[in-house]
Amino acid sequence: MDNTIQNYFLQNLSQASRTMGYARESIGVITGRLNTDLAATPFELVHQEGRVRLKHYMPPSGPGLSTPVFIVYALINRETMLDLQPERSVIQNFLSKGIEVYLLEWGYPEAKDQYLTIDDHVNGYMDRMINFICHRHQVSALHLMGVCMGGTFSLIYAALHPEKVKTLITTVTPSRFDHESGLLHVWMKNLDPDAMVQAWGNIPGDVMNLGFLMLNPSRLMMDKYVGFFRNMHRKTFVEDFIRMERWIFDSPDVPGATFHQFIKDCYQENKLIENRMVVGGKTVNLKAVTMPLLNIYGRYDHLVPPEAARNLGESTGSRDTRDICLDTGHIGIYVSGSCQQAFVPAIADWLKKRDRQAKTTKGQTCAAA
């Protein structure tokens, strides 16, 4: 046999053998027992108002701060992102640093919830949960951390109720909307929220998800599945991939009235940063945010680009502000291995210094919920 033909035959035979081996490994993985559970960290359910629940996480060695951290997630998608997988869990990393955590779970809005406004979420649910935590710990204020839209809510809350917020942490939080960085901001400026609320009441989570996927269809709808087929022989990869898919497509609807005000007041009229936004009959003045502020965002975030999040402290009344920009995207900030080594440790160190500097006064507690 000619050497060229023989070599060609042997190369293809070797490739076929590797392909068969890969196929056997992959079938073994995807048909075997997989651990794809989300939010596996044990918690105590301490308070509930209808669909809205308050989860409590206690560090194994006890709390290392005088007051706990209250985390408010966005209304879009679910708070399980913060406890997505065991080895990359923001919640578990906080606990390992001795930080006691309360986490707000918004649940799944029903048709009757379409009339709930930002006021109902901020001055209603959030305020009552904070009152409950303060009363439970006999403190007057707590550490407040917001994620994405939940960060915007937390910023509004801190401006309206500064006496109840010891420190404020905003992560991938949109606050500035007077730019066209990122396709989402361009779309939102041209959206008709009146028509959407009239058509649906609550904005369907599936509609929101489709919009997010269309921001980068090549990467979010094609590349990631190509990557899956290339790595489906790796059990850990498959488990993490399925966890992420479960989180992405577990999308609660967004209450119509809240969606309407958020789009109109923030994306289209930039009222928040200009101190013109009205919530609960009161103007939100960011100069009232005088507590220490830590603002964290992602350099490659396509949903909340740096232009929408950075330099937040300049618009507040706080004299203790810090910006941290991580080399990651919107979700990577919570699940990337490299970011996990920087994200929680930075927050923990920042909190512990300020927790010591400004001890909460005992006896002056928030009203009981």
Automatic annotation (TrEMBL):
Residue ranges constituting the AB hydrolase-1 domain according to the UniProt record: 71-332
InterPro entries in UniProt: AB_hydrolase_1, AB_hydrolase_fold, PHA/PHB_synthase, PHA_synth_III_C
Source superkingdom: Bacteria
Gene3D superfamilies per record: alpha/beta hydrolase
Keyword Cell cycle found: no
Signal peptide limits: none
Keywords from the UniProt entry: Acyltransferase, Membrane, PHB biosynthesis, Transferase, Transmembrane, Transmembrane helix
Pathway(s): Biopolymer metabolism; poly-(R)-3-hydroxybutanoate biosynthesis
Pfam annotation, one family: Abhydrolase_1
Stored PANTHER family: POLY(3-HYDROXYALKANOATE) POLYMERASE SUBUNIT PHAC
Protein name: Poly(3-hydroxyalkanoate) polymerase subunit PhaC
Name of encoding gene: phaC
